[in-house]
Design goal:
The complex is a heterodimer of chains A (about 270) and B (about 280).
Chain A: H1 12-37, H2 47-60, H3 62-95, H4 101-108, H5 110-113, H6 116-129, H7 136-161, H8 165-172, H9 177-188, H10 190-206, H11 209-214, H12 221-231, H13 236-258, H14 261-269
Helix pairs in contact in A: 1-13, 2-13, 3-7, 3-10, 3-12, 7-10, 8-9, 10-13
Chain B: H1 2-7, H2 10-39, H3 46-52, H4 55-88, H5 91-106, H6 109-120, H7 125-133, H8 146-169, H9 174-182, H10 187-215, H11 219-224, H12 232-243, H13 246-277
The chains are: A mainly alpha (about 270), B mainly alpha (about 280).
């Protein structure tokens, strides 16, 4: 509102409720960051050492190092596949009109609406019926299903803002569909595709529920973190959490530069 | 648009859609094997009969719906206040709130829940501060009970509630309320009679998302329930992983999801009818 609004300011109740909401979002993050660098009563080491010891422990424990490698590997492969499949599907539903198009748009968002436990259990049963022993391949397959809706959404949102005249010009001038896709469409939506990749990577990297049903032996990072919290009470996880928060902030800032977070959050809301 | 679709051959569309279709086939296969496993018994409804006929198992169902109900109510009220505040603050403040919500959405769930333990646990920041201030004599139990699970779920689902409501509120022209206010409607009245009815579609969408999300939540009850607040998903996990009882686990998960969807469907139908008649 640029003009002077005659509306009174916010009332006390909405202010307090909104403040409570923001505190609920911020306080846990602050506490976890402070805990990761602060002396702790349970610490064995003198206070001046403590600030680094949890980070050191996080980096030197082989279980975490291996889990980090597994998670990065799974999330990378997942994000590459989900982004490429999702980009093609987004081009199909945004740039083409055909019977069943709306049904396809809805079906592409289906995995987001199905409770994760149903997906995890469903994949566990499917893979065991197919005789596929628990492995990282199973986890990647399940993660592709979970992350593809996000990739489709982000690329669709990007495509809808880009004029199709360039692509049409290329086709009029005789470019084949493949050439026009690779030379025109892809460069035009590059920022959307990159954001979709980051989105898919983060969702896969974060996943706990579906992974918990499919994991044996070598777990992803969230699985190892959960196992550690169950057995240990030192703040090593606070150090890992702080690193995760920092990485998420970087990811969000990159997406913000590429597409604009505020616009994207609206398209995410529109999926409802 | 017509030129392109006329030119695009069937082959182009197939090439664009086939990979995504393969993924859709995969999820269809997973969900159908879930259903098949739940009825692979003699008689076919044996798993369902066992689940629905035992108070021990029904308790999981009842608890799940109670926790999801409370979570939805609290999240929508707080989320509405945040969304409404976002329409009334300066652009930089709004941007900051959006960033916080997106960060929440992108946080690794396990570490996010861990940070709630650090904040609200018996030895957590809140209890230690209250003890130091002398406000309490012994730590207050804030987690490892239903309250803790609900707090954790509200924390997790706030972004799902705020964004749909905000995207609707943002489209309500301020002039509408200003008119009502200038014509003498008080602040509360101009809100409840003008703004709120127009935002109902966003509220309804948020209710659906938050309710279904918290009904199926797994990591939060697992970590903040302390074994006392096992929701339906924890039941399904334990039956499947600890007892390899896939069919029974599937039956429980299906009963809960179908009931949840039915409830959500009834709710949206009710809201839609009210919005149409209003």
């Amino acid at each position: 509102m640029t003009h002077a609004s005659p509306l009174p300011g916010l009332g006390l109740t909405p202010r307090l409720l909104a403040l409570a909401g923001c505190l609920l979002l911020v306080l846990p993050q602050i506490v976890v960051i402070v805990t990761s660098i602060d002396p702790n009563p349970a610490a064995i080491f003198p206070p001046h050492d403590v600030s680094f010891v949890w980070y050191l422990n996080a980096f030197t424990r082989p279980a975490f190092r291996e889990a980090l490698l597994v998670s990065v590997g799974v999330a990378s492969i997942t994000a590459i596949v989900a982004t490429s499949f999702g980009t093609l599907a987004a081009v199909l539903v945004v740039r083409h009109r055909f019977a069943g198009r709306n049904a396809l748009v809805a079906a592409l968002q289906l995995p987001v609406l199905v409770p994760e436990v149903m997906l995890g259990l469903g994949f566990l049963i499917l893979f065991s019926r197919l005789g596929m022993r628990a492995s990282l391949v199973n986890i990647v397959l399940a993660h592709i299903v979970i992350t593809m809706p996000f990739a489709v959404r982000v690329v669709m949102a990007n495509l809808q803002t880009v004029s199709r005249s360039l692509e049409e010009a290329a086709q009029v001038l005789g470019a084949t569909p493949v050439t026009s896709f690779v030379r025109i469409t892809l460069p035009v939506i590059a920022s959307g595709v990159a954001s979709a990749f980051i989105f898919a990577f983060i969702v896969s990297f974060d996943n706990f529920t579906v992974t918990a049903f499919l994991v044996t032996g070598r777990g992803t990072l969230p699985i190892e973190i959960y196992a550690y919290i169950r057995t240990e009470s030192d703040p090593t996880i606070a150090a890992i959490s702080t690193i995760m928060i920092a990485l998420s902030v970087v990811g969000i800032l990159v997406i913000d530069r590429l597409l604009g977070i505020e616009r994207l959050s609206k398209t995410q809301a529109a999926r409802a | 648009m017509t030129t392109q679709s006329a030119r695009a051959s069937l082959g182009t569309r197939a090439a664009l859609g086939a990979p995504a279709l393969a993924v859709l086939v995969l999820i269809a296969a997973a969900l159908s094997s879930l259903v098949v496993a739940s009825v692979a018994a003699a008689p076919w409804f044996a798993h369902y009969r066992k689940f629905l006929g035992d108070d021990l198992y029904l308790a999981y169902l009842y608890r799940s719906f109670r926790v999801a109900g409370w979570t939805t109510a609290v999240t929508i009220v707080i989320g509405y206040a945040v969304a409404y505040t976002m329409t009334r603050v300066s652009a930089p403040v709004r941007r900051l709130i959006v960033m916080l919500l997106v960060l929440q959405f992108f946080s690794v769930s396990v570490t996010r829940i861990y940070s709630i333990i650090l904040l609200l646990g018996n030895n957590g920041a809140v209890n230690r501060s209250l003890l130091a201030l002398g406000a309490i004599d012994a730590p207050v139990r804030l987690i490892y009970n239903e309250l803790g699970v609900i707090i954790g779920l509200v924390n997790a689902s706030l972004p799902f509630a705020v964004f749909p409501i905000y995207s609707v509120l943002e489209r309500v022209p301020p002039s509408l309320r200003e008119a009502a206010y200038t014509l003498g409607a008080r602040r509360a009245r101009s809100f409840w009679q003008v703004v709120f009815p127009l935002s109902l579609p966003g509220v309804s969408a948020s209710v659906v998302i938050v309710f279904l999300y918290s009904l199926g939540a797994f990591a939060t009850p697992l970590m903040l329930g302390g074994g006392f607040v096992d929701l339906i998903s924890v039941f399904a996990y334990e039956q499947a992983i600890n007892f390899s009882n896939y069919g029974f686990a599937a039956a429980g998960a299906i009963v809960s999801t179908v009931l949840g969807l039915a409830l959500v469907y009834a709710f949206t139908a009710l809201v839609e009818r009210r919005t149409v008649t209003a």
